[in-house]
Specification:
By secondary structure, the chain is mainly α. It has one domain. It is elongated. The model has no long low-confidence stretch (mean pLDDT 87).
């Protein structure tokens, strides 16, 4: 199986140098961050539920909830949901 290659801008080379031996880890962290951001964006727009956003982010709901709160993403509530929860 061929190994993928990535071309990066020359101006990033100096910044990436300290992580030269850990580029795979750096890429995985970036992908994880991107999944979280995309999932929360879709949640904020009302495209997906919070549960689906957690699935998309590949993390448990409580963990995504803490992450969302840290970014100032407030939970969406509908009056019907609140009434059901309080009943």
């Amino acid at each position: 199986m061929p190994e993928p290659s990535v071309t990066i801008p020359a101006e990033w080379a100096e910044e990436l140098e300290p992580y030269r031996d850990r580029l795979a880890e750096l890429l995985l962290l970036g992908l994880s961050q991107m999944r979280r951001q995309e999932a929360l964006l879709l949640y904020r727009r009302g495209v997906v539920s919070f549960g689906r956003a957690a699935e998309m982010a590949r993390m448990p709901e409580p963990e995504l909830s803490r992450y969302a709160a840290a970014l100032g993403v407030a939970p969406r509530y509908e009056e019907r949901m609140v009434g059901e929860e309080l009943a």
